[in-house]
């Protein structure tokens, strides 16, 4: 990867300064879940449209009363698809300000109505209703050609020399935890794609940025896949939940763009949120929230079932997105991030407000990796998630 790094370094320095001077704002967008809870016993119950919850009594801090989390958690409509596999909600990790539950994940009540990041049209969440589910994946696969472009997340002048590896995903256990298998297809982008099909765009740091195309053979369509991008100048990014149905492809090549994050930006993105790098041995998560038509959803609330989570939403700068410390919901690009994530399986979900009512806007059982990025695109119910 080539090009000056001056803008990136200035952005990092500015972001660290903002963190140091605006920690009160940063805390609003950082959720340390369950920090105020005290264990006092447990019961179990099942809510409509949600997972079975294992509740732990905790003082609510508003009058000395003792409550259990299902006393104030309301199941979000549209979460029926995940109720059989979502892990039970752990009330020790539920804060008093969280009043909504979807797929075993607790959320605060969304304050703003979901809109499309494009600013036009209404969000489509019909695929979260049983009548709108896609056809269930049947396990039948066919080797196809995948083509696309390696998109650069934030800074970089070329997505060159990116190694691409495709793996099958298997899910096991009552919570369908994912496991990545052996590499089934692989390839790489060119060392210089500025003259060989790179997609150009004006960039203040580079003059012209080139995002490089790729072609992969023998990619098994019809199965859930994970695709890894990496390289000497690139962080390791594991995109989960990649899927295409054979019916939708109808014999045509599979078109799917990938994400690459520079090794420098792996540090800078965390510094912009934390004021320091991601901790060694911990994972990072980046993702987006889309509706059933794959349009970005602004004003979505994202949360996880992690006992401790450090989350940020990102600015609307399409070329150089960085954590936005001033907001607690998705922006126009619908990008979110999680930092210092313990490696292993976890749940991530999204909700929003539609016509004055709370609605599920996505859920995924994901996997965090030590020293690497997990990329999760929440966009409707996937064929392999259909009950």
Quick structural summary:
By secondary structure, the protein is mostly beta strands. It has helices at 6-21, 23-28, 246-249, 263-274, and strands spanning 42-46, 52-56, 58-59, 66-67, 74-75, 89-90, 98-102, 105-108, 115-116, 142-152, 163-172, 177-188, 199-203, 207-211, 213-221, 225-231, 234-242, 254-255, 258-260, 283-290, 297-298, 301-304, 310-314, 323-324, 335-341, 344-354, 357-368, 373-379.
Number of domains: 2
**Strand content bin:** 35-45%
Q: Give the averaged pLDDT, no decimals.
A: 85
Low-confidence stretches: 1-30, 34-66
Number of helices: 4
Radius of gyration, in Å, reads 21 Å
Report helical residue fraction: under 10%
Backbone shape:
globular
Instruction: Report the span from N to C terminus.
Output: 43 Å
Task: Give the tally of β-strands.
Answer: 28
Strand arrangement, major sheet: 12-11-16-17-28-20-25-23-24
Decide which structural class fits the backbone.
Answer: mainly beta
Describe the sheet with the most strands.
Answer: 9 strands, mixed
């Amino acid at each position: 990867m080539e090009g000056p790094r001056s803008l990136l370094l200035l952005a990092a320095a500015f972001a660290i300064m903002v963190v140091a001077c605006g920690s009160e704002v940063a805390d609003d967008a950082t959720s340390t879940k369950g920090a105020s809870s005290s264990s006092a016993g447990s019961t179990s119950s099942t809510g409509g449209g949600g997972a079975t919850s294992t509740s732990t009594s905790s003082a609510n801090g508003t009058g000395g009363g003792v409550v259990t989390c299902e006393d104030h958690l309301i199941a979000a409509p549209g979460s029926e698809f995940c109720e059989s596999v979502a892990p039970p909600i752990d009330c020790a990790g539920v804060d008093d300000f969280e009043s909504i539950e979807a797929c075993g994940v607790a959320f605060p009540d969304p304050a703003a109505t979901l809109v499309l990041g494009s600013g036009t049209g209404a969000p489509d969440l019909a695929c979260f209703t049983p009548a709108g589910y896609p056809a269930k994946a049947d396990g039948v696969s066919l080797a196809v050609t995948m083509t696309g472009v390696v998109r650069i997340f934030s800074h970089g002048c070329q997505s060159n020399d990116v190694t691409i590896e495709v793996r099958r995903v298997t899910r096991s256990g009552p919570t369908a935890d994912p496991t990545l298998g052996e590499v089934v297809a692989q390839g790489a982008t060119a060392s210089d794609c500025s003259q060989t099909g790179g997609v150009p765009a004006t960039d203040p740091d580079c003059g012209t940025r080139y995002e490089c195309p790729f072609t992969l053979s023998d990619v098994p369509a019809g199965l859930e896949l994970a695709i890894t991008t990496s390289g000497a100048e690139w962080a390791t990014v594991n995109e989960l939940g990649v899927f295409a149905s054979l019916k939708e492809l109808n014999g045509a090549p599979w078109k799917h763009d990938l994400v690459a994050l520079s090794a420098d930006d792996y540090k800078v993105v965390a510094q912009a949120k934390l004021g320091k790098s991601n901790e060694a041995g911990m994972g990072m998560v980046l993702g987006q929230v889309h509706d059933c038509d794959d349009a970005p959803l602004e004003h979505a609330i994202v949360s996880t079932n992690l006992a401790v989570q450090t989350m940020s939403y990102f600015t609307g700068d399409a070329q150089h997105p960085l954590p936005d410390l001033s907001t607690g919901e998705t922006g126009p690009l619908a990008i979110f991030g999680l930092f210092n994530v313990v490696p292993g399986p976890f749940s991530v979900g999204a909700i929003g407000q539609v016509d004055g009512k709370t609605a599920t806007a996505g859920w995924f059982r994901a996997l965090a990796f030590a020293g690497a990025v997990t990329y999760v695109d929440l966009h409707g119910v996937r064929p392999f998630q259909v009950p």
